[in-house]
Amino acid sequence: MSEFEVRCLTQSVAPSCLNRDGTGLPKDCPSCGVCRTGVSGQSLKRALRERLGIHRSLETTKED
């Protein structure tokens, strides 16, 4: 039998960053035996970009 270790990271987030379902309620998921609110990876990346002051966009139009 193999052994493994589970580590859980908790972080406080603003209510606007919560991942919501079709009815507008925050999604939840089990983590380390406790039901926690789900936060999308996309919202975490956006918050990090804003915190670091990274403001860039990609031009998607094709030049002739």
TrEMBL record:
<protein>
    <submittedName>
        <fullName>CRISPR-associated protein CT1975</fullName>
    </submittedName>
</protein>
<dbReference type="InterPro" id="IPR010148">
    <property type="entry name" value="CRISPR-assoc_prot_CT1975"/>
</dbReference>
<dbReference type="Pfam" id="PF09344">
    <property type="entry name" value="Cas_CT1975"/>
</dbReference>
